[in-house]
Amino acid sequence: MTRLRHLFLNSLQSRFIAVYLIVMAPIAALASYYQFTILSDRHEAREIAALDAVESAFTPVTSTLVQSDLLLNLLGELAGRGMSQEGECSSMIDAVLKADFSVAAAGIYTEDGQPLCTQAMQQFGVGSDLTITPPANSPQVNLTESELFVTKTVLGHIVAVQANIPSVDLPEITTDFRFASRISPLTSDGNRADDLVLVHRLAPHARGIVHDEPDLDLAILPVTAFDLRLIATLRPGVAAPPVWRTVVNAAFVPLVLLALSLLLADLLIGKLAVNDIKRLTRDMKAFRQDRDLPRQGVGPWATDETAAMQAEFSTLSDQLLREEAEAQNRLHNASILQREIFHRVGNNLQIIQSILRLYAKEAQTQEARQLIDQVAARIRVINLVHNAVHQSVDAPVLSAGQTVSKLIQGLQHEGLIGSDIDIDQRFQDVGLRVSQIYALCYLLVEKLTRLSRSGASRIQIDLVEDDATIVLSVSANVGQLAAADPVSARLREVYTRDLRATARWRTETDTVTFTAVIPGQVT
Q1: Is the N or the C terminus of the chain less surrounded, counting Cβ atoms within 10 Å?
Q2: Residue ranges of the Signal transduction histidine kinase subgroup 2 dimerisation and phosphoacceptor domain (predicted)?
Q3: Closest CA to 57 of 145, 164, 146, 174
């Protein structure tokens, strides 16, 4: 079954950490959510306290504005009735001025600024202000830090009220303040043109804190008089931070705790579980490389499972060493038996050659002696091939070039081919099975002995591997080939069939070439 490999999840320790993270991540997320809720409530409470402090500090000012608005409306009602009751206006204004109010002066004027009913207005120069700025139907408010002057036109009359603005002891959370109108830009000290847009960011009667510029927070509170809004600039840190910053602050502590817990879990898992497994892996590797037996005993933090694996591995390693020793002993005995059989076969072939020589001495005719010599030569060839094959590396696949080289040396030493023949050998690293090597050697012996009988002085042997075939090529400087021995011709057919090869002779000027094409896989 194919092993599934995932990034960072290949080790046991990383998988333990992944499971721990899967379990702890929802807890960290829940803790971050509750922390976010707590911080949000804390910021909201701080903003409410700041708005209450600003509203409390400006209570005298807002009371003055409300009183002035009330008096302006009363004078407007008198002007609307056409001043029907004489002395009513003066009595009302005089009563207001004598009361504990902040109104300093009030009056009713004609459209051209002539006083109809006034109290204390001329001494402040209010009448002259009416001629400069004609009032509109809605209240026109002129507000400074110390004085309020408001006018309104009612049925062809101008109603005016002037009041003193009490000083304000600003709370520590504010730096400055100003008033703005929701209807039209207010004429006052420090008024800004964009205040009309700013106050519309809240509902008509709502109060709150808005962000005007980067790092600039404004508290906006409604004033019931003249539809005004109080705008106070807050110090940094009073208003609630952006939501993303609150999210970061809320998640910081849970994430840090999660990271620390992951680090601690990684250390504990490595100490309590993974170290024993790594130790067992090192013992297995040492046993595989050097056959070192595993150390006895387990670590102080070993689990029951790792202790059981250690015991099973110790038992398995002991059993494997015993079986290997038995296998080595059997292999040694088999090698001894193989060498003994090789020597016995070689000795038997030499005995057969000796017997044939004895028969040759007792032969009565020349034809009989020649026949016995030919059989003896065949036996020597079998012995040479046998020695060349079994002197090579003991393996199922042998090097063809190395075996053929040993065979050619033996043929020249035994005199089966001329020792003065120059044989050029060009072999690639071609590997053949033992049965193929035997057939190839016998086939090559038949070709070399025939070329030697044909008087060749130089022979070139090539053995190359081309794609799925092996090509054997034997060429010699011979003009005419010697006649083929019938037995040799028959044996050539047998060896060629064993190799499943396609063989042929090719004759050129003073050169003959034998070529055999052998399939790469021969069963």
Answers
A1: N
A2: 340-413
A3: 174
